[in-house]
Amino acid sequence: MFMQSPFAGTVGVRSGRLATMFTVSTKGRLLVATPPLEDPNFDRTVIYMLEHHEDGALGVVLNRTTDDSLDAPLDRWIELQTTPSSIFVGGPVETGAMVALGRPRAPIDDDHELLTPITDDVVSVDLTADPALAAADVTQVRVFRGYAGWGGGQLEAEIDSGAWLTLDGDADDLFTERPEQLWRTVLARQDGRLAWLATAPDDLSLN
């Protein structure tokens, strides 16, 4: 199943103190997990945020690869997939759903038949469409199984507690050919103490 806009019906996948009000949207930005996180679903993850408003938030994990490839009829998209051209683990919610993101050749209008803009350089891709038609407007595609979701106020509470860093990103982060290095790459380009985290050992007690 492909979900063009998987926000409806999402449930929070991590617990925490609920915020009392919605503050600033993280849509189009990165959530970078701060070490250590006890939940293995999110430890040292980088999440690209697809939606965030007062009713909740959702995104896809960018740095969890699998050995799975697209099966027919979705295998028609393989030529547009960025290396590594496998399915990524987008998160633990709706793991039967496929979410596809693409890199447009130029900013896409809201009324495009196949693509839905998230930012100027990232779009949601309709996998039920003919990839030959999409190829005219996108240069890269990455496919995720499932997504990460939070209920209203839940993500805000986790950010306030220090579980996540909210950082700027770009399309290079989404379509990197070295996703296993993404967590350290994003942190290393930050200023000050945040860059130090990029070299922190997995077990912080050893530092």
Ordered list of secondary-structure elements with their pairings:
Blueprint: E1 30-33, E2 46-53, E3 56-61, E4 88-89, E5 93-104, E6 115-119, E7 122-125, H1 131-134, E8 138-151, H2 154-160, E9 164-167, H3 171-174, H4 182-188, H5 193-197
Parallel strand pairs: 4-8
Antiparallel strand pairs: 1-2, 1-9, 2-3, 3-8, 5-7, 5-8, 6-7
Instruction: Give the full name of the CATH homologous superfamily.
Output: VC0467-like
| CATH topological fold name | VC0467-like
Distance between the termini: 44 Å
Mean pLDDT value: 86
Q: What's the helical proportion of residues?
A: 10-25%
What structural category characterises the helix and strand content? alpha+beta
Number of helices: 5
Largest sheet: number of strands, sense, barrel closure: 9 strands, mixed
> Unreliable runs, pLDDT <50, ≥5 residues?
1-20
> If classified by CATH, what would the architecture be?
3-Layer(aba) Sandwich
Rg value:
17 Å
Mass-distribution shape: globular
Taken together, the total number of domains comes to 1
Broad CATH class: Alpha Beta
Strand/helix succession: EEEEEEEHEHEHHH
Topology, number of strands: 9
Percentage of β-strand residues: 25-35%
